[in-house]
Amino acid sequence: MEFIPFAFPSIGQEEIDEVVEVLKSGWITTGARTHRLESDFAQYTGAAEAMAVNSATAALHLGLAAMDIGPEDEVITTPLTFCATVNTILHVGATPVLADIGPDGNIDPRSIAERITPRTRAIMPVHMAGLPCDMDAIWELARKHNLKVIEDAAHAAGTLYRGTHLGGKESKSDAVAFSFYANKNMTTGEGGMLTVNNPDLAERVRVLRLHGISKDAWKRYAKTGNWFYEVIECGFKYNLSDIQSAIGIHQLKRLENFTATRARFAAMYHHMLAGVDEIELPIDNAAHRHAWHLYMLRLRLDRLTIDRAAFIEKLRERNVGASVHFIPIPLHRFFARWANRRHNQCPRALELYPRLVSIPMYPGMTEEQVEYVADSVKAVIAESRRRRLAVA
Ligand SMILES: *Cc1c(COP(=O)(O)O)cnc(C)c1O
Which of 23, 52, 333, 359 is the most exposed place for a label (fewest CB within 10 A)? Predict the structure, then answer.
């Protein structure tokens, strides 16, 4: 079997043709294709407004900045996330506060409740692997304590919460950030989207997205040909180019199929790995639709003779790529200074971390490859099984 990476983008001929058209058109920065991607994404999710940006990190940063979250404020998020989530809180000068995870690996609303102080301004939940957080509980806390909610939905394009998309009409969140990074459920190479349902917030995000200019270049060029522009605040350079949006338009059309394929592969893994005592399988919730960005196994290390690093190495020897999501925030040197504070302690995330292994999951896999990965996991476990003494 050829090496199976843990993630791989599915780029079709339509994406390639559209990029070539953009390149030949002479308009290669933000323009008609980006506007098309925004309206398609708003329609897909049911959000009132969708704003394309050059990463989910930019989307989170813009969301916080547009809501005037700053140096006096605390933002509660999860320790089990990519560093970008916490970096954006620091970028606006606010203090990140970590709430621990629950059994499903997502932020635990009870832990959020314990961390709320008079300085708390916002909650930033992360839908780990594409499994939605308990948004009803989070929205209830936000309502009670007058907090903003900005969701890190980097894994969750295609996730349904009680039957509707994150950021859609049913959403009580202020903003939702999606990622189009190379390995995410849909990609533009690099890119992201921020959805909001409040038009004033959307307008502020649009201004901040491009230097703080009151109108973007496309409107000036296409509608008025006007040379005049005005900077109304200190903004950022976070716009998405039409080269990237050309890819995104076609990726979005294929997202429902991608999601269905991921779910089918998850069901195959579940079926083939059920009953293997040395691992726990990822938790699903039938009330929602999991987007299966990742398929995360949990090793039961007490039943194995090897640790997680050796487990991943043995998979690699069998030509199976694997990864870890994520190294908890308090374990990074830069963030460690917060970990010592009592209100940032996250024992459940730290206990889970050495057990986490993400195995290959992407729509371009063949069923044969999915079966090969599951067989490889079982073979590595069989080799490394700790023989427990039978009690007579
Ligand atoms: C990928 C990822 C991000 C950042 O996405 P970019 O588009 O690369 O900025 C943020 N949060 C989580 C949980 C992610 O996995």
Answer: 333
Tokens of 130: 């594409």
What's the pLDDT tens digit per position in 7-17?
A: 999 999 999 99
Do 183 and 209 share a domain, yes or no? yes
Assess contact for 150 and 63: CB atoms under 8 A: yes
Does 106 map to a domain? yes
Nearest CA to ligand 1 atom 5: 56
Give the pLDDT confidence of 111-132 residue by residue, as tens digits.
Answer: 999 999 999 999 999 999 999 9
CA atoms within 13 A on the CB side of 188: 32
Pull the structure tokens for residue 264.
């089918």
The token pair that represents 68 in the structure block: 């005037």
In whole angstroms, give the CA distance from residue 94 to residue 81: 18
Tell me the per-residue pLDDT of 330-353, one tens digit each, with 9 for 90 and over.
999 998 877 667 678 899 999 999
On whether residue 7 sits in a domain, the answer given is no
Tokens, residue 41: 């994404």
- Using the structure block, give the residue that is written with the tokens 């394009």: 157
Count of C-beta atoms within a 10 Å radius of residue 237:
9
Q: Would residue 184 show up in a list of annotated catalytic residues for this protein?
A: yes
pTM of the model: 0.96
**pLDDT bracket for residue 356 (50, 70, 90):** very high
Mark 119-142 as b/e (b = at least 16 C-beta within 10 Å).
ebbbbbbbbbbbbbbbbebbbebb
User: Atom of ligand 1 at shortest distance to CA of 84?
Assistant: 10
CATH number at residue 207: 3.40.640.10
Q: Which of 255, 278, 362, 372 is nearest to 319 (CA)?
A: 372
Instruction: List all residues whose CB is within 6 A of at least one atom of ligand 1.
Output: 55-57, 81-82, 84-85, 126, 152, 154-155, 179, 181, 192
Q: Which of 227, 250, 273 is the last residue of a domain?
A: 250
